[in-house]
Amino acid sequence: MKLHIIQPTTYDSAGKLFQTKKRWVIGMTLPYLAGLSGPDIDIKITDERLESIDFNRDFDLVAITVMTRSSKRAYEISKIYRDKGKKVVMGGFHVSFNPEEAKEHCDAIFIGEAENTWHEMLNDFKQESLKPVYKSDVFHDLKNLPFPRYDLLDLNKYKVKFLPVQTSRGCPFACNFCEVSHMYGRSYRFRPADEVIEEINHSGLKQAQFIDDNFAANRDYTIQLLKKLTPLNIKWTCLWTIKSSADEELVETAKNSGCYHINMGIESISEMSIKDMAKSQNKVGDYERSLSLLNRKKIFYSLNFIFGWDSDNTATFTKTLDFIVNNKVPLAFFSILFPQNGTKIHQHLSKEDRIISSNSFDGRNQRCTFKPKNMTVDELEGGTWKIYQNFYSIPSIIKRVILEPRAAYIHIVFSNFIFRKAAKSLQSPLDYY
């Protein structure tokens, strides 16, 4: 059996397929699905960002992982293969949130986690009895997960060779915009620490990217894991909350175990906006203290922001820019609020008849899909691009980066100039990942 697993690319601001010779970081989905499939299947994985799809190559089954940003392209790829008489299955967060939409574009969809249904689908395909929907009624316990097939990747195509590793799934918080809490509820599961260590050792790489939705959500487990990591002498990066960055013992343990970079979704510097999004774990008054601690420990970090909350207005962009430049934040990413189907914010805006676009692709292309309360759609979209361009302007880069020697200095400087180029061309720097 020949299986083709595909991650579609996105489109650039000119409407062309966005393709590059290299990616910044290694993705986990394709090699993980290959590992989940087992050794008896002939597997080809294609990241379309890095490699054009050879539609003339013969495969028995095509599997496409779909994110909202890439959904338009995913449906185009599926049509080409189905027109050739091939069966296509789809999964991923976008499919789980938009199952009726996705079903129109493929032969079978996955809703939720694939571990409990992937082999059922493969067996059904072999028996020519593919079901239209595969949905697991229980969450996986994350024990005995297969090792991803990183041997199927050309690691020379990645600038930052941090191996994706999963230590947990879910999040104990319930932010009203978050897709994770909608997908998993408030369940939070973590892998046996020794199995995480075994996977890192098996990979042979000395750099790890923990791709958890909220690394360190269980503090005791995280401390235990980090102490087991320390003897490995690796570097690692993760996503955790700004609240975790205020925990000096946790930060110190992270530093000692090889922490290289932390990404944090602080989302807003406005207490009212934090309240709007129900992100009570973020304490705006503690932001500067947390960032100062990371700076003192010489840990490289980046911040995520979301604009468009009911308490936001055009002044929000200026206030945010002043805060992050004055605090010499190394990297930042800015997004427009996207009310994903099924989330609480989508329900709220729908009830107020403020959803203006049902095209889910728009929401991940820096377009506003709802009516903002205190600014126009154009002001929200324009303000988001403007803060990107101002944050990655030459004066800002000099103040925040060039004159601020710190850990990962070369990486930070290089990233800032790459993202400056992206922002000027209205290409989201997030696409580079």
Helix/strand layout:
Elements: E1 2-7, E2 23-25, H1 29-37, E3 42-47, E4 61-65, H2 71-83, E5 87-91, H3 93-97, H4 99-103, E6 108-111, H5 118-126, E7 133-135, E8 158-160, E9 163-165, E10 168-170, H6 179-184, E11 188-190, H7 193-203, E12 207-210, H8 219-229, E13 235-239, H9 248-256, E14 259-267, H10 271-276, H11 287-296, E15 300-307, H12 314-326, E16 331-336, H13 344-351, H14 377-391, H15 394-402, H16 409-424
Parallel strand pairs: 1-3, 1-4, 2-8, 4-5, 5-6, 6-7, 9-12, 12-13, 13-14, 14-15, 15-16
Antiparallel strand pairs: 10-11
Helix pairs in contact: 7-8, 8-9, 12-14, 15-16
Report on this model:
By secondary structure, the chain is of the alpha/beta class. The chain contains 16 helices and 16 strands. The strands form four sheets. Strands 3-1-4-5-6-7 form a six-stranded parallel β-sheet, sandwiched between helices. It has a six-stranded parallel β-sheet with strand order 9-12-13-14-15-16. Helix 2 (71-83) links the parallel strand 4 (61-65) and strand 5 (87-91).
CATH class categorisation of the largest domain: Alpha Beta
Share of β-strand residues: 15-25%
The biggest beta sheet, please? 6 strands, parallel
Name the overall outline. globular
- Straight-line N-to-C gap: 31 Å
Note the main attributes of this structure.
36% helix; alpha/beta; 2 domains; pyruvate-formate lyase- activating enzyme; six-stranded parallel β-sheet; 433 residues; globular; Rossmann fold; 16 strands; 18% strand; single chain
